[in-house]
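README: folding subset

This subset contains proteins for which both the sequence and a predicted C-alpha cell string are available. Records are stored as plain text. Below is the entry for Cytidylate kinase (222 residues), shown exactly as it appears on disk.
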Amino acid sequence: MSAIPMITIDGPTASGKGTIAHRVAQALGWAVLDSGALYRLAALAVIDGGIDPGDQAAVARAAQGLDVRFDADRIWMGGADVAARIREERVGNLASKIAAYPALRQALLERQRAFRRPPGLVADGRDMGTVVFADAPLKIFLVADVEARAQRRCKQLKEKGFSANLADLLQDMRERDARDRNRAHAPLVAAPDARTIDSSNLSVEATVKQVLDLWSSLGTRT
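--- output ---
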C-alpha cells in the first residue's frame, strides 16, 4: 500500500464529483485528478483527428499519444486550452462510449496513477476506488437522483453559455448511466469499502464537510 494519502470519489455523471474533489483537495492542500477529463480528452482527440470511434485500437493509440497538461482551470492539449471544449455534451457522450474499451482504459491507467504524489491526492471518476487506486484509505461513492443531476448539468451548461435542453439531458444521462454501470470492463460500482453519500439534497459545503469528517475520522492517516 502506498504511504501517500488519498481519497477517491466515484459516482455517476453530474453527481458533483469534480466540484467536491476540488473543494476537498483545496481544504487538505492536496492535488486533484479529474480522471473523466482524461477520457474526454481522448474523445476530443478522436473527434479532432477524424478517428473512427469504433476502432478500439486507434482510440487507444490516440490516448497514449495525448499531449496534455493540467494548469489550474486550464487544460492544454497540443498547445491549445481545451477546458471548455471537453465539457461539450457530444464530447462527454463519446467519452462515455469509448470508456468501455479495455485498451483505452489500460492506456490511461498508469497516467492516472502517476498523479499520486505527496502531500496527497483526491481522485474523482468512475473506477478510482475499484480499479485505479484500490488501496485508497477513504473511498467515497457520490450519488444523486438522475433528475437532480440533469438539472445541475443544465444549469452548468447555461452558465457557461451553452444551449441546453433538460429533457434531452435527462435522456442522455440515463443512457450514460446504463452504459457506465453495465460495461464489462471496470463498470461504475461502489467499492465494497466505499462510503456512499447522497448529494441530491445537500449543498456543496455540506457534502465537502461529510467527506472531510470521514477523512478526519481515520485519525493518523492524514
